Each structure stands twice: as C-alpha cells, then as structure tokens.
C-alpha cells in the first residue's frame, strides 16, 4: 500500500512510517492510518501543540448531531 499523501524525505522518516504502517495496517482504515503517520513522523511539531490549543479548537467547533 503506497500512500500518495506521505512522501518521507529522510531515512529516519521512512523507518518511522514503516513501523506505524506495519503495526496499524490490519487494524485501521486508510484515513486513520494517514493521520497516525502524520502525527508520528511530525512528532516534534506535534509536541508544540498544547492542550489549551486543542480545547479552544474543540470549543470553537459547531455543535453537530443530537445532544446525549
């Protein structure tokens, strides 16, 4: 399964991609696999995201569906 949206440039990224794909390939759909790869390969950037930023983004989202 070659993904057009993932283009690792460094050998370390290729190794990271291979680890994630091997572990998740039979357990997840393509979209979930794509997002996990992005988070794993770009983990330095992901560490910059604080909990407050995530909470603010969820609070800003429009409510969907029926309330529980």
Task: Please supply descriptive tags for the structure shown above.
disordered N terminus; 0% strand; mainly alpha; 60% helix; 68 residues
Can you give me a brief rundown of this structure?
The chain has 68 residues and is mainly alpha-helical. The protein has one domain (11-60).
Report what the structure shows.
The protein has helices at residues 11-24, 30-41, 43-47, 51-60. By secondary structure, it is mainly alpha-helical. The protein has one domain (11-60). Helix 1 (11-24) packs antiparallel against helix 2 (30-41). The radius of gyration is 15 Å and the shape is flat. The N and C termini lie far apart (39 Å).
Break the fold down into its secondary structure elements and pairings.
Elements: H1 11-24, H2 30-41, H3 43-47, H4 51-60
Helix pairs in contact: 1-2
Number of strands: 0
Please state the overall shape, judged from the principal axes of the Cα atoms: flat
Q: What percent of the residues sit in helical stretches (DSSP H or I)?
A: 55-70%
Q: Can you summarize the main beta sheet? A: none
Strand content: under 5%
């Amino acid at each position: 399964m070659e993904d057009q949206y993932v283009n690792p440039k460094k050998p370390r990224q290729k190794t990271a991609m291979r680890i994630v794909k091997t572990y998740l390939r039979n357990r997840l759909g393509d979209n979930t696999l794509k997002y996990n790869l992005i988070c794993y390969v770009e983990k330095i950037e992901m560490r910059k995201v604080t909990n407050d930023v995530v909470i603010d983004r969820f609070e800003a989202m429009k409510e969907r569906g029926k309330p529980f």
